[in-house]
Amino acid sequence: MKLLLSNDDGIYAPGILSLASALAKAGHQVFVVCPDRERSATGHGLTMHSPIRAEVVESMFPEGIRAWACSGTPADCVKLALWALLDTPPDLVIAGINQGQNLGTDILYSGTVSAAMEGFIEGIPSLAFSLASYEIKDFQPAANFAVKMVELLKAHPLPKPMLFNVNVPGVPTEEIVGVALTRQGVRRYVDIFQKRTDPRGKTYYWLAGEVLEEVEQTLDPQLNANIPTDVEAIRKNYITLTPLHYNFTSLEGLEILQEWEFPSQ
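-> structure tokens emitted (265 positions)
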């Protein structure tokens, strides 16, 4: 299959090298377009008021993998690849492997998920992979699972494009319990801004958020209550597989607002 890979940790991150190497070794045609530096937590930002540059990277990846370092955001990388760098569209867009989890409401800030989302918006099945640890540096279990997911999607073509958010627990392979189909949970952070002073005596602030445990949420009536959240499942050492979409419409909100009488002007 023809695969487009991107990330938000940057072109030199070990996660993208592990992912690209594993997929190329499995016989896939791999293209890599990543930010030229770390772009974590940039969400779905696009570069609108400055040029975007893409430089070929030749020395880092195994032979046969074409790679570019892009000056833009993760979403820029995928958009640029699809509209300017690749001659034909890929079969899949894959983002990751991110260093750190993208669970629950993390996906709203995640550059990794946004890179995959950009592919999904363009009508291409997409996957976002994250290693749910900031300390563990072994990306191989996540890379191995990515290879298996690509083979599954090749054997079972989707009736329409989907986006899958995948989180792999940061434990040895033998401790991974299995794969859990999950729904998106809710995580909140205590956002603590540390007030500091620079050498010139000017004040600046450093965001140092602390994560809370999963927050209880009202279950969407369309979702099965027996399906665990990604936050629950990752704690039990399951690989979490969550299908996502970009439609934020609140069905509950539509029902409530239909009862309102709005002024005509």
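The chain has one domain: 2-183+224-247.
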